[in-house]
Structure formats: structure tokens, C-alpha cells
Amino acid sequence: MIDPQLLRNDPETIKRSQRARGNDESTVDLAISADESRRAALGEFESLRAEQNQFGKQVKAASKEEKPALIAKAQQIAADVKAAEARSREADAAFDVAASRIENIVIEGVPAGGEENFVTLREVGGVPEFDFEPRDHLELGEMLDAIDMQRGAKVSGARFYFLKGVGARLELALMSLALDRALAAGFVPLIPPTLVKPEIMQGTGFLGEHADEVYHLPSQDLFLTGTSEVALAGYHADEILDLSGGAMRYAGWSTCYRSEAGSHGKDTRGILRVHQFNKLEMFVYTDPADAEAEHLRLLGWQESMMQALGLSYRVIDVAAGDLGSSAARKYDIEAYVPTQGTYRELTSSSNCTTFQSRRLGTRYRSESGKTTPVATLNGTLATTRWIVAILETHQQADGSVRVPEALRPYLGGLEVFTPVSA
RNA sequence: GGAGCCAUGCCGGAGCGGCCGAACGGACUUCACUGCUAAUGAAGGGUCGGGGUUAAACUCGACCGGGGGUUCAAAUCCCCCUGGCUCCGCCA
Questions:
Q1: For residues A192 and A166, is the Cβ–Cβ distance under 8 A?
Q2: Which long-range contacts link A38-41 to residues 24+ away (Cβ below 8 Å)?
Q3: Can you list the domains of chain A with their CATH numbers?
Q4: Residue A286 scores a pLDDT above 80
Q5: DSSP three-state, residue A276
Q6: Integer Cα distance of A76 and A188 in angstroms
Q7: For a tag on chain A, would you pick the N or C end, based on fewer CB atoms within 10 A?
Q8: Can A345 be counted among the known catalytic residues?
Q9: Chain B bases having any atom below 7 Å from a protein CB
């Protein structure tokens, strides 16, 4: 939800943002007029209610003889109030609809345009060279007896898999490494529910643009979350936070579920794009004035993970038209995947400024003592998909894979994954 | 699954259909006093929104788990829902 004050005071800024995203700027004018109608209806209702409140006191004070006449009048006022209240509610609902069509205000400097208009901020690690024909992650995973797609499909269908042996251990090691680093950075670990109520799904915005990607359990009316961001954002819904000690940082580990409804035929091989995976997600509540700096800190922690794992990657500043509706800016880190000859997204980090918190009612007390919406940010610190880049990047001619040093302590000192059979 | 009890502000906890945005206690903030991180005294605070103001002041409305209803008037009465606690049953 955008700031209604901004809508009144500076609609031009909102329009500029809408244009950068490639959205229709007329939604802004519609929202403005909806806001005006809303306030007019509210004013009418409130003054009638004030009259009713005053009159009620007279009724009480009146003598027995006067009462019947007064009550007759009061009944009329009550009917008027009821009607005015209904009109006010309608106008309110209409405004909510109009305002919710407007996406978050893009931060100055975000590249305009669509998916292909991202700006590469830097490339790190170069393109890995092999003096043999590199195998893709699935072939490696099968040689190592680490990934079993066939049985995944047998049990659950396409895009499901088993991680087995060193594959299972690798994922747990990766998550543990990420969690330890998050702890060192002051994050509070959290294992959230992955089934959430409709209002939480709605409040975090995932029933909007991602609605068709979300699994729903109709018999219980619960949704399976595609990221722990949902539960982490809902965690402090309708609360006033104490940020006097600085930002509140959570590291949420959860399984994530995505129906991938729009991706038929894309990335069908291996575990690059699957219905279920695990992820360690960073989520931060902070002072809006500090949000951009925090965003860069999140990015820093992500890059540090990439480097610890010896991956080649690039950092991109995602273009306005490719941002989610809640994000004001988004940095993705994409790792180089040798057999694809290109970079693939491993992390994503969004600054949602106050857009998400406004809808969820998460506020803090500013120095002046006023309650104001907090800024929320989120970013990936590890996911199952990283296994793709790790296996491919560190493979050797015989199909063995060198274990990045940072992971070894979490794998009992194991230095190499060795193929189970030739 | 059956039966009962409960849901009020930061916390505890009162609350008669109108004088209740809500007693009282604690915590908190400010001031005073005390030679000193204590004691005492005084004062002050909630949230959301509308109007108003450069900003305040001020003012109006809403909010006592959520949603309906009764009534001129609901924290208070009725219904539904959600959540919590206790007991019984069932499954481990």
C-alpha cells in the first residue's frame, strides 16, 4: 500500500514511478478521486454521528413526558447515520481497491524498463574454465548418487526430487553455513509455519501477482508459502516495534512451495526449477531512513556467501518493470552455470520500503514519538538451487566435485564428493 | 469429537445499557525533593482516521479478540466466528 499522504501531496512522484515500471499512470488519478470521495463520505458520516451522539445525551436527560418525541427524532437520525455509514464504507472499499492498484514507488536510480533492462553492477570471479567437457548438475548429481529425479517423479510427479547421500548432506551443510553467518551478523533464527491463512497471504501481496504460483489447500483454506518471507512479514503484523536498539533481523529457514504454473517446459532438467525446495531467508525491519543502507548490507552478506562458496557471479540491479509490486528496488545475484553458459539467479534481495508494512500494520515509534510504518527488506542467503552452481563450478574431469572449504566443517571435513559408480 | 470457562490499554485487572477511551495497581516519561542509579510526592500518557496548523494547539469520529444483530444509545444484551485455558473421550 502506498502512502495516502503522498497521493494527495505529490502525485507526480507516483506517476513517474508508474511510468518507470511501464504501468498505467491513470490509476493514480483514479486513486486520487477515490480518496476525495472517501473523505467526503467520511465527513458526512462523522458529522451525522456527532449529531447523534449529542442528541443521545439529550434523550437521556429528558423528562418522561419529553422522551417519546425525542426518541422519534433520534430514530430518524439513527437511520440517517446508518445510511451515511454504509456510503462511507463503500467509498472506503473503493479507495482501497484503487490505491492497491498502485505499486511501490521505485527508488531513484533504478533502471527503467522491463526484464531485459537490468543493469549489471559487477561481475565477480570470471567465467570458470575447464579443460574437459563439463557435466551438468544432474549428471553430476546422479554420478554422486546425490540427486534422484526419477523417484521424485514417481512419488510426487514432475519437478520433484530426492536429495540423497552427499546431496542431502550438502544442502544441510549449505543451510548451516548460511545460518552461522546470519547469526554472526545478528540475525535471529526463525523456523516459521509454511501454511498460512488467506489474510496473511493477501497482506504480504502474494495473492496478487503470484496468485497462480501459490498452492492452496481448499479444504482448510490455507496456503503453502513460496518463501518464508510471507510468515516473516506476517510475524509482526499489527505491532508497534521497538527499533531503538537498531534494525530487527530475522533469518527464516523453511521449505518453499511453488506451483510454477507459468513455466511449463522451462528449466525442466534437474533441480533448477522445482515445486519444493529449502531456503534460508533474511528479513529485516528497520527505520525507513536506513533502508537503502540495509539493502546494501544484505547484498554484502549474500556476496560474501557466493565468495565463500567459490562461485562466479554477477550482481544486477533489476529494472523497474521487473520488480514485484512491493519492491522499490531489487538486487539479484546470479551465479555462472557452466553448462548453460550463462548466469542464473541464486539470490534476490528487495527493499520494500514502507509498502509492505503499511498493509500489514507494522510500525515503530520514531524519535518524535509518532508511530510510523517501518521499512521491510528481504533477501536470500541460501537455497537448494545453489547446489546446481556448486556442483557444476567445482566439478573435476572424473565427475568428482571439490567441496568448497567453507562447507567442509559442516560435512565432517569431507574435501571431495566422489562418484559412487563409474 | 463432547462439556465448561475466558478474551478489556505496555502488563495485571475492574467495569451498572447512557456520567466509560474506560476504575485501580504496576511499568514508563517528565517535574519536584532527598548529597548521590533508591525512597517519596506531583503530573502525564493508547491506537487509527477526518478537519485544522508552517509545525503545534485545537476539534470531530472510530476502536474494549473479529463479524453481524437488538436499541434513540452497546465494553456491557443476543447470534456467529476465531483464539486461549480446564475436564472427558480418541489417537499416539
A1: no
A2: A38/A88, A38/A91, A38/A92, A38/A94, A38/A95, A40/A91, A41/A84, A41/A87, A41/A88, A41/A90, A41/A91, A41/A92
A3: 4-100 (1.10.287.40), 115-417 (3.30.930.10)
A4: yes
A5: strand
A6: 57
A7: C
A8: yes
A9: 18, 47-51, 60-62, 72-73
Lowest average pLDDT, out of A25-29, A61-65, A131-135, A335-339, goes to A61-65
Q: How far apart are CA A338 and CA A229, in angstroms?
A: 30
- A173 close to A308: Cβ distance less than 8 angstroms: no
Cα–Cα dist A280/A228, whole Å? 8
Instruction: Tell how far CA A179 is from the center of its chain.
Output: 19
Beta carbons of A273 and A161 less than 8 angstroms apart: no
Indicate the pairing of strand A240-241 with strand A248-257.
unpaired
The residues pairing with A334 across neighbouring beta strands, listed in sequence order, are A314, A345
Tell me, what's the pLDDT at A56? 85
Per-residue pLDDT at A422 exceeds 60: no
Give me the residues near strand B, CB below 7 A: A 4, 39, 42-43, 45-47, 49-50, 52-57, 59-60, 71, 74-75, 77-78, 240, 363, 371
Q: What is the pLDDT of residues A90-135, one digit of tens each?
A: 999 899 889 989 999 999 999 999 999 999 999 999 999 999 999 9
